[in-house]
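W.,

You were right to be curious about this one. When I first looked at the sequence I had no strong expectations either way, so I just let the prediction run and decided to look at it fresh. Below is the sequence, 115 residues in total, followed by the output.
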Amino acid sequence: MPSLPTVPGLTHAAVRGALAHTVPRRRKAIALAIAALADALQLGLFPTFLEGALSIPDDVLDAVVAVALLLTLGWQWRLVAALALELTPGVALFPSWTLFVATLPVTPAETAGRP
């Protein structure tokens, strides 16, 4: 088994726990493109998406984006928070999908090849 990266003041268990919630750089880039496109659509078609959860096109877009991000990134609790934010009327115009993806930590280069 390859050795874990050393981080001063952290045990190997803490490093493993921290790395468990990271995503590979390529997957984050794909997810960021999906999120940015969805947020751009919501801003570009502002009148259609203004109502949040009351707008059927907004609900469809949010469901498609949530599934796409789930398939790209795997399960993330932040995804639930971003979806809840997107379903709030008026708040859907804030780029929450992009913010959600941008705040995800990336897997360090030396551990990227590990399963």
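Here's what jumped out at me. DSSP finds six helices and no strands in the chain. And, maybe more interesting for your project: The two ends are 11 Å apart (CA to CA).

Coffee later to discuss?

I.
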